[in-house]
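Re: beginner question about structure tokens

> Can someone show what the tokenized structure looks like for a real chain? I only ever see the sequence side.

Sure, here's an example I had lying around. Input first:
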Amino acid sequence: MADKASRGLVIYGDGLMPLISPSHTHLHQLASRGTCGFLSLPHSPPSESDDERVVRELAQLLDAYDSYNIRAAKQSSTSESLVQTISERFMGLRAAIFTNDSSVRSFASLLGLTVLQFDELIMNNNSPREPAVSGLLKLLGFQGCMALDTCEFDLVFVHIKSGGRCSDLKVDIAGGEVEFINGLIGGILEVAQLGSEISTRLHISLVISYGTLAEDKDSVLNLSLQEKANPDLSLLFPRQSYITTGKNSADSIRHHCPMLISQWQEAVTRKDTTEIFTFKEFKEHGANLAIPADRFLHEVAFKLWKAPKYGA
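And the corresponding structure tokens:
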């Protein structure tokens, strides 16, 4: 456990998992440096649009599904005023988000996140897609290799949707979303050298999802530990925590195509034997199997000293 509160950076690639390749070396570097696992999601509602899915899955990450339902039902502004903000729920947590999706902007504002302009992350010199890492870290109170005593935000999200457009983005990253995230991770790892104050105070979470998909229960991208070759052995496998709510099974949870998550903070996160950012690698070598996606923010907030520990 760290002796000071961490500052959190969450980079969320929405629907980008099928686009990751061996060339995205910085994503694989982060996976090899930290601890990896999965965030399980519920089955999609019937006839859900992609825009609805994007907001619903973000709501799961923020443990704000009730707020999503209020918004989706288009209830009165009086009802929406009853929605608890992230700050109210997590001990004054100051959170911001960059996103290239207008629906996400609206929902994030409802939850009290500060919505920032994406062009603040783009450098005007060198490569036009090179992220302004120093500006991002500055929001979290890092300057040079030092952690300042104060920071503007405790937690910053960077949300990149596959094929998304952003009107305030000076450089169109559509078609190069994974390259953008790969560059962002590479820049941060270059600054957060092992042993530096940044590496011990910055908690990085890289979350990549599969996006819209067919309900393929036989997918090879399946979390189930049951042995299909011999159904009689299935009773020997204990129920995993991600499919239970208390003593009951959470039947709405799907086993296939979860979000993949890699987290790193020097001397805080565990080091597993994962080497690359792939489903197969995470399942075989990751230190974590899966937790429900709606527990993710609780885990991160704990590292920021804004929530009690979730789970063991």
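Each token stands for a local structural state, so reading them left to right follows the chain. The domain at 7-303 is CATH 3.40.720.10 (Alkaline Phosphatase, subunit A).
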